[in-house]
Amino acid sequence: MRVRAATAGLLLALGAARADPPAGPRAEGPEWAVEARPGASGSPLVDLRLEARAGFHINLEYPMAFLPSREATARFSAARVPLRPARTTPCPGDGKEVCSATLELPYGQPPAGAARVAGTLAFSVCSADRCLIQKVPLSLAVGPAVPRG
Amino acid sequence: MRTSFAVLALALASPALAVDVGAKAPAFTLTDLAGKPVSLSDFRGRVVVLEWFNPGCPYVRAAHTRGTLVDDPARHVRGGVVWLAVNSAAPGKQGFGAEANRAAAESFRMEYPVLLDPTGEVGRAYGATNTPGMMVIDVEGRLVYRGAIDNSPDGERQAPQGGTLVDYVSAALEDLAAGRSVRTPETKQYGCSVKYGS
Question: Structure pTM?
Answer without folding.
Answer: 0.85
